[in-house]
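[step 3/7] inverse_fold.run input=structure_tokens len=307
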């Protein structure tokens, strides 16, 4: 059995179709189809049900997908184990936030590729929640406060954010002083998330309400500047607006607790070597860079993308 045929099938299963898998793999659709047909012929079973609208896994394909994914993962670990120290090869697919990823994490990922010429680094920048396992990502960079899940997280740095509003909004509606008062104000949010605030040594969770929602921090800042409500956003997005007087901090007696930047990976006993190297690089950057303390804080929970 050809390992590339097996990897191609896993990619098709994760991507949801031949076309999407071909884009991820960087090969033609005809090549993907040939590999799938070769694998099905060798197994003597149909893995994909094909139609004019695309392809879907058969019952046998759904069952075989998990075994194939585990086999590919084990082979990757084995290959990494015997590589010379420092060498990385293969592909690393990363999900990262659109709000700050291209400005803050893209230089680090470029450095990772520079240090390891045989490593293929593929990054998806999006502020939506990405399902790592179903969509075939090796890991994700997330920021904020992590929800409970079966994923494994490694903290790589600290991040800070605050609640802000426009002077015009404050003039009309006032500024909340306590967490209870926040419920009477318009909140600018990603969705239905909770916000965490501090009260002395305690952390308080509040669930604000609002009619304006966006999955991008820059869009929420624009809404706050327009006077639509109170936003909970990263310091690096708001510092210039605060300096110019377009935004003012609110709830300063109850600031958000420090949050974190994390690398999240699917469950497994040992992380792949390429993920360990990525984590070490991010920790190195966050320890040395003044900008690390200004990495994006999402609107309450997680700033990326995935569960």
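[step 3/7] decode complete -> sequence:
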């Amino acid at each position: 059995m050809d390992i590339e045929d097996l990897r191609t099938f896993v990619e098709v299963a994760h991507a949801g179709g031949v076309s999407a898998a071909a884009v991820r793999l960087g090969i033609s659709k005809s090549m993907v189809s040939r590999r799938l047909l070769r694998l099905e012929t060798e197994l003597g079973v149909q893995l994909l049900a094909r139609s004019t609208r695309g392809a879907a896994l058969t019952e046998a394909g759904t069952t075989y997908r998990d075994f194939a994914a585990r086999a590919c993962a084990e082979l990757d670990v084995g290959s990494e184990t015997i590589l010379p120290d420092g060498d990385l090869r293969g592909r690393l697919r990363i999900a990262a936030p659109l709000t700050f990823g291209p400005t803050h994490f893209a230089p680090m990922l470029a450095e990772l590729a520079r240090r390891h010429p045989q490593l293929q680094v593929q990054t998806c920048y999006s502020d939506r929640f990405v399902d790592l396992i179903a969509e075939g990502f090796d890991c994700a960079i997330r920021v904020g406060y992590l929800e409970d899940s079966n994923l494994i997280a490694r903290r790589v740095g600290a991040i800070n954010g605050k609640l802000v509003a426009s002077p015009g909004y404050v003039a009309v509606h006032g500024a909340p002083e306590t967490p209870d008062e926040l419920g009477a104000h318009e909140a600018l949010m990603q969705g239905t998330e909770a916000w965490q605030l501090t009260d002395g040594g305690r952390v308080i969770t509040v669930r604000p309400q609002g009619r304006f929602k966006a999955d991008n921090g820059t869009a929420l800042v624009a809404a706050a500047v327009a006077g639509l409500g109170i936003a909970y956003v990263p310091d690096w997005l708001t510092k210039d607006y605060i300096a110019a007087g377009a935004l003012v901090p609110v709830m300063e007696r109850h600031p958000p607790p420090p949050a974190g930047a994390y690398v999240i990976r699917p469950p497994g006993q040992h992380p792949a070597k390429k993920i360990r190297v990525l984590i070490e690089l991010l920790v190195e950057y966050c320890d040395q860079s003044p900008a690390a303390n200004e990495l994006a804080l999402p609107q309450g929970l997680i700033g990326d993308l995935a569960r």
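[step 4/7] annotate
The chain has three domains: 3-78, 90-158+269-294, 161-250.
The CA atoms of residues 49 and 56 lie 5 Å apart.
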